[in-house]
Each structure stands twice: as structure tokens, then as C-alpha cells.
Amino acid sequence: MTGTLKKIKLLNPEFPNKATGVINGKASGILNWNDIAYPQMYRMYQTLLANFWKAQEINMQDDIKQWDHLSSIEKDVFLRVNTQLASLDSLQTPTMTQVMDYVTDPSFKAIFAVIAQQEAVHNESYSYILSSLIPLSEQIERFNQAKDDPIVRKRNQIILIAYENFRQEPTPQHLFQLAVQSINLEGIYFYAGFAFFYHLARQQKMLKTSTMISYIQRDEMQHAYFIAQFIRILLTENPELNTPENIQYVYHSISEAVELEKEWARYILKEIEGINLEEFEGYVEYLANKRFRQLGLENHYSGRDNPMPWIHVFSDEMMNETKSDFFEQKSRTYTKVTESNGFDEL
């Protein structure tokens, strides 16, 4: 399947309501959650909705009082990480919205819409934190710093290439690559920044910020999981995409993101006492192995255990009562999901 995807018409009355494929399928455009091709997606939708939150729900007064007691290094890293995370989330809302135009299945469209909205909330939350702590002039300066930082631009580049390729030429192959890079953004790239905020929290510093970050992480965890399932379904329904070259693309792309996250951590966390960078690098590899397993692939890095014990209290597993094994099937093949094998088998 090498052709360009066509934008889906809003309404196709001659087609069934239950979509015949996630892309290049037939669907009326009318969404009946009780009659969808992948019933487990209703649970995914409900899980995302249950996460709903707004930045303004978190009172920043305690953090405002603590801000002046942070060291100059902590303040600088805090602001750099904040705006770097915002620069990544800024890409997600328009990208997820664009993907909706080419996905046939209306249940998937609905989930992409929720993800796009949540990414907009994340983006706002970073601005909300900054507005509580520093004047607008410094906020603008810090956002420009993130935009111009060569390491940030290098990190963003692999994401941007895939996103722009799909924007310019929306083919199934480019959609697959976009989805893989979205997993990198949601499931690999944020965690050095998260680690910094959680490191402050374990010292009882900036706890309101860490609470907001935990909400963001909970969302991103679900987004990465959904995109992994989307990829598995895409490859199942379109076996011409399920090639050794594309599986190698997954391994290469996620491994590249791991190295870029390590590079960023060495750059941004090098002067933060109490964060062992070797432990953190192992932690990123641990996260990457989780992403591979969510895609039904084998671990790429040795070891399955989290080598950064203190961060476990802030880990994905602690954010969600669902056992990690529920998300991490190790099958080597992509099995089409039906009601008989269900969500747990995906």
C-alpha cells in the first residue's frame, strides 16, 4: 500500500457505521460506541476521559513560596526543562488533529481527539507553572531559549521529520513512522524532565509542580500505550507494512530516541546532585524495553528491572493500578484483535 491516503469525508451514508479498517476502510462517519470494530477502544476512551484535569485545579502557592529557596542551578534547570517539555507538547495537538483526517474508524478519531485536547492541556500547564513563578518577559526569554537550543532542536528533529513527512505526503508508511516517533515523544523523551521534578519532590520541593507533572505523565503513559496498539492494528490490517524493514525502523528509531534522551540528561542534569546519570541511562533503556513490549517486540536492552529505585514511586505502574504485564505482551507476531481475544491480548 504505497498510495496517498485521502481525507475522510465527514459523512458516507452508503457505508456501514462499524468501520472496516483503521485506514482505507469504509465507515459512515457515525460513531456508535456499542458497534465498533475494536470494542476495547471504548475502554481506552473511558480511561482517557477519567484522567481529565485542568492546570488551574492545582494551587501553586506553596511552590511560589519555595521558588526563591531553590538554588540558581535548580531554578535554571527547572525553567529549561519546563519550556523544553512545552516545545515537545506543542507538536502533538496539531499532529494528532491532522491524523484524524485520514483515519477511517470513528472510534479511533474520537481517541485521537481526546489526546489532542489533553496535549493542549499539558502545554497550558507548563505556561501556568511559569506564570506562577517568573514575569512574562522571562517566560518569553525562556521559551525562545528552548526554541533555539541546539540540543533541543536536535532532539525535536527526528520527531519533526516524521511529522512533516506525513503532513506533506500522508501515506500509510508515513503514518506508521509518525506513530513510532509519537511513541518516542510520549514514552521516551519526557522522562529526564520528569525525573528532575520528581527529584525535587523527594526533597519536599515544588510539590505542586510535581503533582502536575504526575498528571501529565499519567496521560502520556496512556497516549504511548494507545499509539502502540494503533501501530499493532495498523500492521495487522495492512500486512504490507508489517515488514522486517519497518520492524527494524522501530528498533532503530526508539534506540535513537534513547541516545538523544541520554544526551539531554547529561546536558541538563549534570549539575543536579542526587541524580545518578548512569542509573538514569539504564532507566531510559528500561522504558524503551517497555515500549518494545507494548509493540509486541522483544526487549532490545539487557535487563527488565528499573535500575533507578527511588523513582519507582513516580513510575508508570504506580500511576495506574493496572499491572504492567497487562500492557506488555511479548508475542513476536501481530495478532488481530477480536472480541474473543480482547484488550488483554493486544
Automatic annotation (TrEMBL):
SUPFAM superfamilies, per the entry: Ferritin-like
Keywords: Deoxyribonucleotide synthesis, Iron, Metal-binding, Oxidoreductase
Reactions that this protein is recorded to catalyse: a 2'-deoxyribonucleoside 5'-diphosphate + [thioredoxin]-disulfide + H2O = a ribonucleoside 5'-diphosphate + [thioredoxin]-dithiol
EC numbers, comma separated: 1.17.4.1
Binding site for Fe cation 2: 119, 186, 220, 223
GO BP terms: deoxyribonucleotide biosynthetic process
NCBIfam families named among the record's database cross-references: PRK09614.1-3 (NF007184)
Function: Provides the precursors necessary for DNA synthesis. Catalyzes the biosynthesis of deoxyribonucleotides from the corresponding ribonucleotides.
Database matches in PANTHER family: RIBONUCLEOSIDE-DIPHOSPHATE REDUCTASE SMALL CHAIN, RIBONUCLEOSIDE-DIPHOSPHATE REDUCTASE SUBUNIT M2
Similarity field: Belongs to the ribonucleoside diphosphate reductase small chain family.
Protein name from the UniProt record: Ribonucleoside-diphosphate reductase subunit beta
Source organism (scientific name): Robertmurraya siralis
